[in-house]
Write a structure and sequence with these properties.
The complex is a heterodimer of chains A (522) and B (215). Helices cover 79% and strands 1% of the residues of chain A. Chain A is built from 26 helices and two strands. The radius of gyration of chain A is 23 Å and the shape is globular. By secondary structure, chain B is of the alpha/beta class. Chain B has a domain of 106 residues: P-loop containing nucleotide triphosphate hydrolases (Rossmann fold), CATH 3.40.50. Chain B contains six helices and ten strands, in the order βββαβββαααβαβαββ. In chain B, the strands form two sheets. Chain B has a six-stranded mixed β-sheet, with helices on both faces. Chain B has a four-stranded antiparallel β-sheet with strand order 2-1-4-5, covered by helices on one side. In chain B, helix 3 packs across helix 4. The longest helix of chain B has 17 residues. The chains are: A mainly alpha (522), B alpha/beta (215). At the A-B interface, helix 11 of A face strand 6 and helix 2 of B.
């Protein structure tokens, strides 16, 4: 029997994994299916007000996606493909903004510039999600073979080599930007914040929320369907771009290494550009929030330090219970994904390209759905007399978060599993080693740190999730909701200090991973 | 007296304290064919990378047409390289792989198009212009790499085990293709391989590289 066939033998474990995935990923979404298939949700599209709202949302999200592309792509090329001082720290700065609550970034940018209005939503969310095109471009650049880079260098010098880097990275960056479009178009909190502090404007996600509050909640579910469809269209388009213009670099040998810039002023210029990128992505907004922890008006008492200390003390005392609750929910959601993600990452490894796209789309559905739509649907599904106990327990947010963020863990692990020589597992398969042992010993084994990181990322995303936390009763008393409420009530030292506390918790897993990763490579 | 195309003098190279090349001296005449035989890891590829400028030696000299060339950028040396894993640009079509290289050398669009088609016709890939490299067979990929390198009309072509991982039939076909193309061009060739038969097939001088020493 050919080896490829051997790896396809189905294990009973698979049915269990599929069942659990259906429960955490698809069941909470199921209330959206009826309006999706009976067309009732699309009738709302005939309303000119809704059409304008969708158009404005698409424009706003398109601008954010374009900004993320323009910032993320050059940042990835600078940091991953050139030897510049501090490259390790610049790389570390790339994923961190993704872990920050976008509302915190909105607060920071509003504080820094004093600007509001709809375009500031595009600006803030574009920078908040710029790491997505940057990281996906970096992944492509890391896979570029040294030979194809050197062939470009021999044929046309550095300019041609640089152009080849762009060609290699663009499909990944386009895919990342389409994700930015989806996340931005479904975001409720940031546009709501800028509309509160400045001129009023509305986005489609707010329409979903108001439908949910004003009428019956099924109206909210129905209203979110056009946004899901818009997201799916953009995603399908970007998958086509990746399929058409992206291509696996099939060189078997060395990977292209970061280039050394021989001229001093090139090196200085590249470092300055990377620094500007890091400042805008992370350092400026974080510094602003940190400054706000001790900021005070002309009549305030004490020094910046004393006010900051008071702010942190208040944040710790008043927000501790919410932070712990958020952490508990995040840990449980992360734990579930730690078990499920390796199975799906392994499945992707052994799937044809078409099947792989189907699985990715299936797993990504909860992530692509607007958080508000997912929350409303989950309420509709679980707020029944038979499941009311579960509905009001922390079990519901754990289940919904695990399903929503599972694709992030799967994607990360799949990337790692691809690096394992297939012969290792094939030999194990021939020797009769069970599926679970193969997955956890031969695939997870060499990438334990990445496996733990995947769980930690789910934890972090669960802690920063706001839109869902506002809706699901058991997660109302969470860190993200307390921050949202406090920010709308007053912009004081407590809010900033509480934001920084959340940032520390969110950054911690990645920082630990990065420190260990570096120690191992040094 | 005609200046040699390339002269290497007393080239030394180490990686992480391990000596890979030790005092290598080599002269390559215009249009000459040279094969270097050696086992895996003996420094063959490193030698080619130093000649092309992709690697710098720790010590030694390199002259091209009698002029010191160690500081000459790789793309200005008139040298092309067929890498062991080919280095085809995976996002570009077969045609674009050759066309882009020609455009990078400042050929006009019309000329680049014509020369790219000529090069592809020469290796019988003109029917596959719109395919991506991943859609080609092993032998076809190699022919594309030859076509791209030779379309730029280099003075020296470096071949790094160009037939590795090909089956016997594809290898024979590729060798025949290469011979045919080389007969028509006036390019000097430096081949590194670990097979004597491949070296003999190319013709010209055969040298041995062992423990970083060329003999």
């Amino acid at each position: 029997m050919p080896l490829a066939r051997l790896t396809r033998i189905t294990s009973p474990w698979w049915f269990l994994v599929l069942l659990v995935t259906l429960v955490i990923s698809i069941l909470p979404l199921s209330a959206l299916f009826k309006p999706l298939f009976d067309g009732s949700s699309l009738q709302t599209l005939l309303d000119p007000r809704i059409q304008n709202l969708l158009k404005d949302t698409a424009q706003l999200s398109g601008t954010a996606a374009a900004l993320a592309f323009l910032v993320g792509l050059p940042y990835a090329i600078l940091v991953w493909r050139f030897q510049i001082p501090g490259a390790f720290y610049f790389k570390l700065c790339a994923p961190l903004p993704l872990l920050l609550p976008p509302l915190l970034l909105a607060q920071a940018w509003h504080g820094l510039t004093g600007w509001d209005a709809a375009w500031m939503t595009s600006f803030t969310l574009g920078l908040a999600y710029a790491p997505l095109p940057a990281l996906l471009a970096a992944r492509s650049l890391q896979n570029q073979s040294a030979a194809s880079h050197e062939a470009a260098l021999l044929a046309g010098g550095p300019r041609r080599a640089l152009w080849e880097m762009f060609r290699t990275a663009i499909p990944g960056a386009v895919f990342g930007s389409s994700l930015v479009f989806i996340f931005t178009s479904t975001d409720f909190a940031v546009p709501d914040y800028f509309a509160t502090v400045g001129d009023k404007f509305s986005v489609y996600a707010a329409e979903v929320f108001h439908q949910f509050r004003d009428q019956d909640w099924t109206a909210g579910a129905r209203a979110s369907v056009p946004l899901v469809l818009l997201g799916l269209i953009v995603l399908a388009g970007s998958m086509q771009v990746e399929r058409k213009w992206g291509a696996p670099d099939f060189g078997t040998g060395r990977r292209a290494k970061p280039l050394r810039l021989t001229k001093k002023y090139y090196r200085i210029g590249a470092t300055l550009l990377a620094l500007i990128g890091a400042l805008f992505l992370l350092l400026l907004p974080l510094s602003r929030i940190l400054w706000e922890t001790g900021a005070g008006g002309p009549l305030s008492d004490g020094t910046w330090l004393s006010r900051s200390a008071e702010g942190f003390s208040a944040a710790f005392n008043r927000g501790r219970a919410d932070l712990l609750r958020s952490l508990g929910i995040g840990l449980a959601a992360g734990g579930i994904t730690l078990v499920l993600a390796p199975f799906w990452a392994h499945k992707l490894l052994h799937s044809s390209s078409r099947k792989k796209q189907f699985i990715l789309l299936f797993l990504s559905l909860p992530l692509l759905t607007p958080a508000l739509g997912l929350g409303i649907s989950a309420i509709y599904v679980f707020n029944q007399s038979s499941s009311h106990f579960f509905y009001s327990s922390i079990g519901l947010p754990i289940l919904v978060y695990a399903g929503r963020f599972l694709p992030i863990a799967v994607f990360l692990l799949h990337e790692r599993f691809r690096r394992n020589p297939p012969e290792q597992e094939e030999a194990a398969t021939l020797a009769g080693v069970s599926l679970i042992t193969r997955i956890f010993r031969y695939h997870v084994g060499p990438h334990k740190a990445a496996w733990l990181l995947a769980g930690a990322l789910v934890l972090a995303f669960s802690v920063r999730e706001l839109d869902l936390a506002i809706l699901l009763p058991a997660s109302n008393a969470s860190a993200a909701v307390r921050y949202f409420n406090a920010l709308h009530f007053a912009r004081d030292n407590f809010v900033a200090a509480f934001g920084i506390l959340m940032v520390l918790i969110l950054f911690l897993p990645l920082m630990i991973y990065a420190a260990f990763h570096r120690a191992r490579h040094d | 007296m005609i200046e040699p195309l390339a002269q290497l003098g007393n080239i030394h190279k180490s990686f992480a304290g391990q000596k890979v090349l030790q005092g290598v001296c080599l002269t390559i005449q215009v249009e000459e064919r040279i094969s270097i035989l050696g086992s895996s890891g003996c420094g063959k590829t490193t030698l080619l990378r130093i000649i092309s400028g992709l690697e710098t030696p720790d010590e030694g000299q390199l002259f091209l047409h009698g002029k010191p060339a160690l500081r000459t950028p790789p793309w200005q040396r008139g040298i092309q390289f067929v890498f062991q894993d080919l280095g085809l640009w995976p996002t570009r079509t077969v045609f674009q792989n050759v066309y882009d290289a020609l455009r990078a050398q400042k050929r006009s669009k019309a000329m680049a198009k014509e020369q790219a088609m000529d090069a592809l016709t020469c290796v019988s890939l003109n029917e596959h212009c719109q395919k991506k490299p991943a859609q080609l067979s092993g032998g076809e990929s190699r022919r594309l790499a030859f076509a791209r390198a030779l379309a730029l009309r280099p003075e020296l072509l470096l071949l790094d085990e160009p037939y590795a991982s090909l089956d016997e039939t594809s290898k024979t076909q590729s060798q025949e293709w290469l011979q045919k193309i080389l007969e028509e061009s006036k390019t000097a060739v430096l081949l590194v391989t670990h097979t004597l038969a491949e070296a003999e097939q190319l013709g010209g001088r055969v040298m041995h590289l062992e423990d970083g020493v060329l003999s």
